[in-house]
Amino acid sequence: MIAFREIDDADPALAFSPLVRGIEKTFAWIGEHGGIPLTPSKAFKRVFVHWAAAAFDWPGHTEADLFAVNKVLNEPDFAPLMVLHDLMIAMKLGRHYKGEFRLTKSGQALVRHPGRIFGTVVPFFLFRINHASMSRFDDAPILGHWDVFLNVLNVETEDGATGAHLRRVLFGEPEKGPLPRYDEVMGQLYIQVLRPLCWAGLLQQERGTPSYRFEDAVFMKTPLWRVALRLETDGVVRAATRH
After folding, report:
1. For residue 18, which of 70, 53, 69 has the smallest C-alpha distance?
2. Overall pTM surpassing 0.85 (yes/no)
3. Topology of domain 134-242, per CATH?
4. With contact defined as beta carbons under 8 Å apart, do 14 and 223 qualify?
């Protein structure tokens, strides 16, 4: 069983979590405005989506990134916001009421408690959400278990590792062919494991080249990883850093 340590609300490592920051900013908006206005289809209205794009400063989905491909922003244009909306509904932290998204008592109990937000929301987000559903393709959940993924990544990303390296360590070499082709396993590893860990703030992603290929991106543990996780391979990492 993967154990998360309790994190103090004042721990600076929490700043590495886009998910925690997004929820905190959402709570702050609700505190100021009373609720988030909804469209007839129950999506967040543009006034909030535009504000969130700037306020969340989500890596890979910053205000500049989003407006580079959209003239206006609806909720589906800002994928992390859609995830947060669904997550808060699924966890009963908020509900739709009279045309607005409002916090429940469970949500209100997390206001101004980023450590508690992390400890409550991140395990649910990582381990109970079907990340395969976020693929553009009809992907099945990737073969593997979170305890295996986290323990392997604990060792391999200590000094940074490319997506291609992590793919080889976890699943072996991709099939070779006469022409370059999309590596489905690499894509699934990114969408279902690496990106969720980046959104949670446990990994950070740096682009290796302008090509934006998952294989070229470099993944490294954030300080939040070390603060939050207790893993079987911690001893291996400590031994490696002493040499």
Report:
1. 53
2. yes
3. Arc Repressor Mutant, subunit A (1.10.10)
4. no
Residues of the chain with pLDDT under 70: 1, 134-143, 177-180, 207-212, 241-243
Q: At what angle do helices 18-33 and 46-56 cross, to 10 degrees?
A: 130
Q: Residues 17, 36, 93, CA angle at the centre, nearest 5°?
A: 55
| Residue 178 pLDDT | 66
Tell me what pLDDT residue 181 has: 73
Domain parsing of the chain, residue ranges: 8-129, 134-242
**Size of the chain, expressed as the number of residues it contains:** 243
Cα distance between residue 236 and residue 14, in whole Å: 25
- What does the pLDDT read at residue 243? 58
* 8 A C-beta contact, residue 151 and residue 221: no
Alpha helices in 69-113 (DSSP H): 79-90, 105-108
Whether 186 and 174 have beta carbons less than 8 Å apart is answered as yes
